[in-house]
Amino acid sequence: MMNLFLLGSRRYYVLSMIFILLSSLLDLVNPRLIGYTVDTALGRGTGRVALLVLFVALFAALFRYLFQLTNAVGTERFVKRLRDLLFSHLIRLPYAWHRSSHTGDIIQRCTSDVETVKVFLSEQLTSLFRIIVMMSLSIFFMSKIHAGLTLIAIGFIPLIVLFSMYFHGKIGKAFMKAEEEEARFSAVVQENLTGVRVVRAFGREIDENERFEKKNYLYTRMWIRVLRLGAAFWTSNDFLAAGRTMVVSILGAVLCVRGELSAGSFLAFVAYNAMLDWPVRMLGRIISEMSKAGVSVGRICAIMNAEEEDKPETPLCPPMDREICFDHVSFSYEDAAEEVLHDICLRVPEGSTVGILGGTGSGKSTLMMLLDKLYGLSGREGMSVKGRITIGGVDLKDIDTGYLRRNIGMVLQEPYLFSRTLSENIGITQETLDMGEVKRAARIASLEESVDRFYQGYDTFVGERGVTLSGGQKQRTAIAQMLIRRPPVMIFDDSLSAVDAATDAAIRKALSENIGGSTVFLIAHRVQTLMHADQIIVMDRGRILEKGTHRELMERDGIYRVTYEMQNGLEPKEAGA
Ligand SMILES: Nc1ncnc2c1ncn2[C@@H]1O[C@H](COP(=O)(O)OP(=O)(O)OP(=O)(O)O)[C@@H](O)[C@H]1O
Ligand SMILES: [Mg+2]
After folding, report:
1. Torsion from C-alpha of 206, 208, 210, 212, nearest 10 degrees
2. In ligand 1, which atom is closest to the CA atom of 366?
């Protein structure tokens, strides 16, 4: 998986490794040169050596610059690729997967976790490499100067590394807890911002504010814990490192006095020893932080490994203006759960309109989701599906999913508008916006009048979630959005519920004149909306109870007639009267 992400940035990483190696090497040559200069301080050639020291330092700086450049470019390219891959995978994941995941969690994985991996690659991985190079080279040069003293100097290393690993383990845990608090705290903020109307309507400002303050307090407390641990670590670590330097310096000085070490070598040794400080300290930190990156990679891979939507082996693209047939369809959202649809049998001839009436939760929307393959028909997503749905005799399973959805226009029960202009929202399926088409669709959906009243007409910006539109305007925008494509199959899921009866009638009239030969599914709670359909089905708790035309159903003593009479202010007649 990492290989896939690294495509295109690998060569930058290889280059950055080479540059860091070169700059580390040059850094390590300098103490040797200085030591040599001191030992021959009174001799000739001091000027030349000084010049060499300058050049070495200059080249070390140049390589460090090149390292940072290649590393930054490599990392940014990597992160861009990672984000691109994540997003394109996310939007291909089945609807059911999205239903079962928290948006906040997904966003955190795409931002915080990507950031953690980025830091790992740009800082930790190269640091680790640099640490290993610096440590081995310093120790090598030191051992060349004095083997015994080197052994003492590196004797401290395991102690310091273990010590910092221990601390960073603790800091890491505290950090994770702080992140969790942050997630809870942002959830409160996000919920309150999206649900601001509910907060106002119920006068919950004070309670919500208290809730926020509590979460904010917990979040702050977790961070203080992280920072306290960090402070304790760095001071005690400084103390250990200073101890190491002191021991080495004293022993070195003793050797120097005894004449076992020249002054220049002693200086060089102390310089190498000081160079060990940083890598030793960082090693423990990096080892424990690498585990954090591991967690993030796991969380990102969990998204990448989620399976995309089912694809038929040989996808078919049959004509869609054909009879649609539900053949003994049963469905439940979870294997063990109660069935939401039982044994649904329904034939919808091409070009006809079917009206679906039914109480809340009777399974109307679910039936339409199945037709649009929003819930895979294989039952792989933990859902149980029986029976089959065919269009012109071709099983839905074999039809190319993209083709199917392009040909089925669905006006969702809860329309969602993007934060773009009204015309962009209506023409969202168009590659280039055709204003003529946008206006035609808006006219059929009875939206024109409202648009005329908007200050900027079709260029009115529809806020995030379309809050500047009324419920009915939003529904009509969604209808226009679908009409612009003139799909051969149209589904209106309770799409006229938020408009008044007169507008409802006007839209239906315009629709019937404009939909041509499309097959239409019309879901409604209002009998008025669907009474002119060619066939009407009445659903109750996942079953079809009644089926027929308006006239046929009115002749029966069923739910349909009772609903009709209630909605028209008539006293429902007693059954059989
Ligand atoms: N994602 C889901 N997971 C589990 N159960 C669900 C899910 N979506 C809907 N249900 C359940 O399935 C049943 C049918 O829901 P559905 O949305 O199809 O009803 P509906 O007829 O469209 O109702 P309404 O008229 O209120 O829109 C309900 O009992 C509902 O609780
Ligand atoms: Mg519904």
Report:
1. -140
2. 18
Place of tokens 């027929």: 548
**Pocket mutation for ligand 1, best pick of 331, 366, 372, 530 (most atoms within 8 Å of C-beta):** 366
Q: Most confidently modeled of 117-131, 197-211, 298-312, 371-385?
A: 197-211
The full DSSP string for 300-359 is: HHHHHHS------SS-B---SSS-EEEEEEEEESSSSSPPSEEEEEEEE-TT-EEEEEE-
367, 541 contact by CB (below 8 A)? no
Confidence of residue 125 (pLDDT cuts 50, 70, 90): confident
Helix (H) or strand (E) holding 560: helix 559-567
Confidence class for position 45, pLDDT limits 50, 70, 90: low
361 lines ligand 1 (CB under 6 A): yes
Asked if pLDDT for residue 53 goes beyond 90, the answer is: no
The residue whose CA has the least distance to atom 7 of ligand 1 is 333
pLDDT of residue 41: 61
C-beta of residue 543 within 8 angstroms of C-beta of residue 359: no
Tens of pLDDT, residue by residue over 453-509, are 887 888 888 866 556 788 888 888 888 988 888 889 999 998 888 778 888 888 888
**Nearest ligand 1 atom, CA 362:** 21
Superfamily of segment(s) 2-305: ABC transporter type 1, transmembrane domain (1.20.1560.10)
Instruction: Give residue 181 CA to ligand 2 midpoint distance, Å.
Output: 35
Written as six digits, the tokens of 138 are: 């310093």
Distance CA 418, CA 526 (A): 29
For CA atoms 487, 400, 349, 499, give the dihedral sign.
Answer: negative
Does residue 261 sit in helix, strand or coil? Answer: coil
Task: Report pTM.
Answer: 0.73
Classified by CATH at the fold level, domain 324-567 comes out as Rossmann fold (3.40.50)
544, 367 contact by CB (below 8 A) = no
Q: Output the CA–CA distances (angstroms, integers) from residue 251 to 152, 241, 386, 542, in the order listed.
A: 9, 16, 83, 87
Distance of CA 29 to the CA centre of its chain: 48
Question: For the segment 272-308, what is each residue's pLDDT rounded down to a tens digit?
Answer: 888 888 888 778 778 777 777 777 888 888 888 888 7
Residues 304 and 89: beta-carbon distance below 8 Å: yes
497 ligand 1 Cβ < 6 A: no
CB atoms inside a 10 Å sphere around CB 195? 14
Closest CA to 539 of 358, 369, 371, 367: 358
pLDDT in tens, 209-223: 998 899 899 989 988
pLDDT tens-place string over residues 86-96: 898 888 888 88
**pLDDT-derived band of residue 326, with 50, 70 and 90 as boundaries?**
very high
Which regions of the chain carry the CATH code 3.40.50.300? 324-567
Q: CA 575, CA 577: separation in Å to the nearest integer?
A: 5
Residues in Cβ contact with 76 at an 8 Å cutoff, skipping those fewer than 6 apart? none
